[in-house]
Amino acid sequence: MKPILLQGHERSITQIKYNREGDLLFSVAKDTVANVWYSVNGERLGTYNGHTGAVWCVDCDWDTKNVLTGSADNSCRLWDCETGKQLALLNTNSAVRTCGFDFSGNIIMFSTDKQMGYQCFLNFFDLRDPQQMEDNNPYLSVPCSECKITSAVWGPLGEFVIAGHENGEINQFSAKSGEILKKAKEHTRQINDIQSSVDLTMVITASKDNTSKLFDSNSLDHIKTFRTDRPVNSAAISPIMDHVVMGGGQEAMDVTTTSTRIGKFEARFFHAAYEEEFGRVKGHFGPINCVAFHPDGKSYSSGGEDGYVRIHYFDPHYFDFELEA
Questions:
Q1: Model pTM score
Q2: Where do the WD repeats start and stop (predicted)?
């Protein structure tokens, strides 16, 4: 089936996220705008306007009531999903790189970049306490002095956050004490993306070292490795099949010197158990920055350096994808 092309951004896409039901798709880019779309037909519902810098991250709580965005304008903002009204503004000292609601939707976390003399912090706010938001005073702020956080997701039951770092390390940070519960270092270069499986038991990482790896969420045991020949910008786990989809390509600054064929701008499908690639989907005119599976597993979306979001529908039991020898 022909993909649905979403044209609502002027610059490259930084993250895309489905809500729990999968009827809405949120996209953010380097152009200050956060968009929300109907995933079934690609119609744009509206935008969340307010940021003045590139928006790096977006998340939606489990009942699609609130939306959280983090930006390079040194702020993290909470929005009413339905009306687009800004509910809270949390100012930081440096750019907000990752953000997320825990499963209850009551606690938010976000991490800030190490820049302009400020170190990287992982901040936790409880939305049930309005005073925290008004005073911009997190109940827990964890300094990460060694290496900045480049991607993060909540673990199961909201007990900890799994964070990927610039040096390839993965850490579990307790949401209660802030201490590091577990560490793993399987990657040799920066982790670009971390995404959870639908039941939160596993996470998949995407790294600049040309690999994507599957880990157990609780123990951080390394389970599988998926190898490619280019940096991997994003990876997602299918909610219904033993499949993972990966997006990447070469570094954005090298793109202008190569054709789309050499640049490897396809989304790649791997079997989660056998670690074998079994399909590729072309489409983007630049590296793919982010991928996400629809919660029903029958479609996936990708956001690229070209500023487009594409929604691809397919039959997960029968792949008719091109795979070159």
A1: 0.92
A2: 6-47, 48-89, 281-311
